[in-house]
């Protein structure tokens, strides 16, 4: 059986495909970091690794279920490390589709940065294996991408940033999807064929957004915006599959399933889904700092901090994502784009 090459790209944040495993640890001035307690308390060795949760990311769990080890962070590898032949993780906390998303984190790998690093990776593979083998390996690799949540949480929804005032939401979605189209085309040109794009979950229901509601409820308008974004990305991916030879891109829409997890936590063995296990001030920062107070039973909580799911929730979400692939893999009729 050939080795499965997993390429993980995107971001770690807010119910998209959370995959970062420590790239930002290697960025000296990055403020988007989780390399301190209490992160990693339920991970192997009980040490923080750069994962924005108490244990495993969805990427870790899916890699395991697919029979592969979790790919290492790209920035941890030496220039000619043979480990790149088994898969690489380029994901970076704070990253977005837009290059100005997360600017206040000072350093993070934007999606364009990640694609540039993938290009360098392919050049290394070509030097090791030759042109034909490098192309074959990249064509057969599986690419997991989850990005877009930070473009909302750390850009459009921030009152002190210009995007929310500069664009209507329809204009912002168009900017996101036209930018994403060029990024996916570039990945295709570099050899990516089997791409899974994980759509956004109900961002209006994460603790950092609920705190903006006087009643602590989900923000309906934010969730409506997310559903519009998901619809447009699904249309984009269907369009790319029609236009690009041998493209096998899949849009995984787990929004309804994730919303069900939040609305009905007891169905999945949880007790609390409206606030985080790590007792953080969700109106400021929202990360689990070393002086934060933890809940007594971590498995009772869907959220670890103000943005990110717990290890136990990631287990559920990984199962939901994998089960959604069966239906997502089937040909679907193209959706008409929403007029602007």
TrEMBL record:
Presence of keyword Lipid metabolism: yes
Broad class of the protein's primary localization: secreted
GO MF term set: hydrolase activity, acting on ester bonds
Entry superkingdom: Eukaryota
CDD domains on file: SGNH_plant_lipase_like
SUPFAM superfamilies, alphabetized: SGNH hydrolase
Annotated Gene Ontology cellular component terms: extracellular region
Keywords: Hydrolase, Lipid degradation, Lipid metabolism, Secreted, Signal
Name of the molecule in the record: GDSL esterase/lipase At5g37690 isoform X3
Organism: Herrania umbratica
Gene for this chain: LOC110425798
């Amino acid at each position: 059986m050939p080795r499965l090459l997993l390429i993980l790209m995107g971001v770690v944040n807010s119910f998209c495909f959370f995959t970062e495993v420590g790239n930002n640890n290697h960025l000296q001035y990055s403020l988007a970091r989780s390399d301190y307690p209490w992160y990693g308390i339920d991970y192997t060795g009980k040490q923080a690794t750069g994962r924005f949760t108490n244990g495993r990311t969805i990427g870790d769990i899916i890699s395991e279920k697919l029979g592969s080890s979790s790919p290492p962070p790209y920035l941890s590898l030496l220039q000619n490390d043979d480990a790149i032949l088994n898969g690489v993780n380029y994901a970076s906390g704070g990253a977005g589709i837009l290059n100005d998303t997360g600017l206040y984190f000072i350093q993070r790998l934007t999606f364009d940065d990640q694609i540039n690093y993938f290009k360098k990776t392919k050049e290394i593979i070509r030097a090791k294996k030759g042109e034909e083998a490098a192309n074959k390996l990249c064509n057969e690799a599986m690419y997991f991408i989850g990005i877009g949540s930070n473009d909302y949480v750390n850009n459009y929804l921030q009152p002190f940033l210009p995007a929310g005032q500069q664009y209507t939401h329809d204009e912002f979605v168009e900017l996101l999807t036209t930018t994403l189209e060029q990024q996916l085309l570039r990945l295709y040109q570099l050899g990516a064929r089997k791409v899974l794009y994980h759509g956004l979950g109900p961002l209006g229901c994460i603790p950092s957004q609920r705190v903006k509601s006087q009643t602590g409820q989900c923000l309906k308008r934010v969730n409506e915006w997310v559903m519009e974004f998901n619809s447009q990305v699904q249309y984009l991916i269907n369009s790319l599959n029609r236009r690009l030879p041998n493209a096998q891109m899949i849009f995984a829409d787990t929004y309804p399933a994730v919303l069900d997890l939040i609305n009905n936590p007891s169905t999945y063995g949880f007790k609390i889904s409206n606030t985080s296990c790590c007792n953080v001030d969700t109106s400021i920062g929202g990360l689990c700092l070393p002086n934060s107070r933890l809940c007594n039973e971590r498995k009772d909580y869907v959220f670890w901090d103000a943005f990110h799911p717990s290890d136990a929730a990631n287990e559920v979400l990984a199962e939901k994502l994998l089960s959604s692939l069966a239906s997502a893999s089937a040909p679907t009729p193209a959706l008409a784009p929403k007029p602007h």
